[in-house]
Amino acid sequence: MAASLYGTDEDFTRTMDEAFALMGPRSPHVREQWLAERPSPDFDDVTVAQPLLYAVGYALGRATADRYGPPDTLLGHSAGEMVAAALAGVFDFADGMRLMMARLPALAATEPGGMLAVAASVPEVEPLLGRDVHLAAVNAPRQLLLAAAERPLRRAMSRLRERGMTVRRVPARQAFHSPLVAAASTRAGDRWTGAALRPPSVRLYSAYDAAPLTAERACDPSFWIGQPARTVHFARALDRLLDDGDHLLLETGPGQSLTTLARRHPRVLAGRSRVLGTTEELIPR
Question: Quick one: which of 36, 180, 181, 276 is 20 to 30 A from 107 by CA?
Fold first, then answer.
């Protein structure tokens, strides 16, 4: 998660230090897990992973913008949509971190479960979907995430493998982007009603709406409150972004998962848009 930049890049380090100061009592544990040579299993816990995803994504995005200029378009995935919103000025980075931390206890207390990455189309997995198993994300035409409580998740994995599909467990302990976390998201939502929300200063695509985020949606607390329980339609959002114009795409999150998806997009393969490597490679050490 870009830990090698900490202490070597001044802008990145300053933002991460601000983030840790905002995390409150959990800050020492989160920081220790992030900088550990071999993180413990706690690294995948929502109380560690979620604030780090938000902090690292914002720190990389901010450092990149400071060096190469602001983006003209932003698109986030899951927690990355909060990163994109903060970079677009919908809310302050500090407010976003406080809101992120406020919802973590309720999310962590949800029924144990998880997520599956499946190489299949939506119609192929539809027989499994229902009350117990949910479509969490559509990242590409044949790259899906399913979410469920522990027992239904294991049953779904067995059935998918019996059908010859490629499936793997995602390192998550909660059934994100499913109704299983809806009540927890709502309980933590009262903090959003007092947040200062503004229209995005640059074009911001929502992976939940698969469309540009309107000023009305951006300023509606319920839109942000419900995100952990909603399906992520990243594939459709990326389609819409690239249909609207040609771009140079750069991932400002930890890893290259979205970069890989973008490089396989027909408009990128056709040379209409380009994809660079990770932000870490562009920030001098």
Answer: 36
* pLDDT of 191: 80
Residue 149 sits in a domain of what CATH number? 3.30.70.250
CA distances to 2, 27, 65, 81, 278 from 252, rounded to whole Å, are: 10, 22, 10, 12, 7
Spatial neighbors of 238 by CB under 8 A, at least 6 apart, are: 75, 261, 262, 265
**One domain, residues 48 and 68:** yes
The SS3 of residue 144 is strand
The residues pairing with 149 across neighbouring beta strands, listed in sequence order, are: 113
pLDDT confidence band for 2 (50 / 70 / 90) = confident
Residue 211 pairs in a beta bridge with 206
DSSP calls for 228-242 = GGSPB-HHHHHHHHH
Instruction: Please tell me the total count of domains within the chain.
Output: 2
* Burial classification of residue 11, based on how many CB atoms lie within 10 Å of its CB (0-12 exposed, 13-18 middle, 19 or more buried): middle
The strand order across the sheet containing 203-206 reads 73-75, 203-206, 211-212
pLDDT for 201 beyond 80: yes
Of 152, 170, 188, which residue constitutes the final position of a domain?
A: 170
Tokens 């140079």: give the residue: 248
DSSP single-letter state for residue 75: E
Q: How large is the average pLDDT for residues 111-132?
A: 95
CA of 234: how far to CAs of 143, 172, 231, in Å? 10, 19, 9
What does the DSSP assignment read for 28-47?
A: HHHHHHHH-SS--GGGGSHH
Q: Tell whether the model's pLDDT for residue 71 goes beyond 90.
A: yes
Q: Are 2 and 276 in contact (CB under 8 A)?
A: no
Q: Are 98 and 22 in contact (CB under 8 A)?
A: yes
Which residues, in sequence order, are bridge partners of residue 143? 140
